[in-house]
Amino acid sequence: MSRIGKLPIPLPSGVEVTRNNGNVLVKGPKGSLERPMPSGIELQVVDNQVRVERPNDTQQARALHGLTRSLVANMVKGVSDGYERVLDIVGVGFRAELVGQAVRMYVGFSHAIEVHPKPGITFEVGQETNTRQFFLRIKGIDKEVVGQQAAEIRSLKKPEPYKGKGIRYRGEAIRRKAGKSAKGGKGGKK
Q1: Nearest one of 131, 139, 130 to 87, comparing CA atoms
Q2: At which of 80, 111, 138 does a domain end?
């Protein structure tokens, strides 16, 4: 039995899980999410817990057991608490501002980059008080969409290894390089 798949998913108050037409539907205070279910995998809601059951021990059923449990658990957490990713915008003159629902970023190019949110995503822009560094908070109820939007924004200006300028995840460690070093010697031309 899958170690992840056999764990029950606790349902917070106000969250409801149903299965209809081969899909699983999760409704909660922040919204609702729907995802297709693999054939053969069953959901059982008992005592405010969801259990994911597999019909047999074939390799495919074992593989889908833990995956389905993780996806349903992510949906339950999303509709009850929501997800967020924070991106730090590091660099002299690098900044971001909200323009309606979109965010406009100035990250070292000759032009500003404007990013529009995917459906169900909201942006918040702020500035750290002590470092005057900007950050972008991406919020939503679908973990997959929040992560994809954050990855797409980060790919616009990845952090470079010499000064660390660029867009990075909050808490991400950037491996730094030493850069050029002066060559030792007698100081004359050769």
Answers
A1: 139
A2: 80
Domain holding 73: CATH number? 3.90.930.12
pLDDT in tens, 52-78: 999 888 888 888 999 999 999 999 999
- Do 60 and 88 belong together in one domain? no
Tokens 């349902």 locate to 11
Structure tokens at 53: 């059951």
Nearest CA among 83, 84, 125 for reference residue 102:
125
Amino acid at 73: A
- In what helix (H) or strand (E) does residue 2 lie, and over which residues does it extend? none
Do 128 and 153 share a domain, yes or no? yes
Specify the number of domains making up the chain.
2
Cα–Cα distance for residue pair 174/160, rounded to 1 Å:
8
User: Rounded to whole angstroms, how far apart are CA atoms 110 and 87?
Assistant: 22
This prediction's pTM: 0.86
Asked if residue 181 belongs to a domain, the reply is no
The Cα 75–Cα 69 span in angstroms is 10
Question: Can you give the residue range of the structural domain that contains 119?
Answer: 83-169
CB atoms within 10 A of CB 15: 21
- Residues 75 and 97 reside in one and the same domain: no
d(CA 142, CA 113): 25
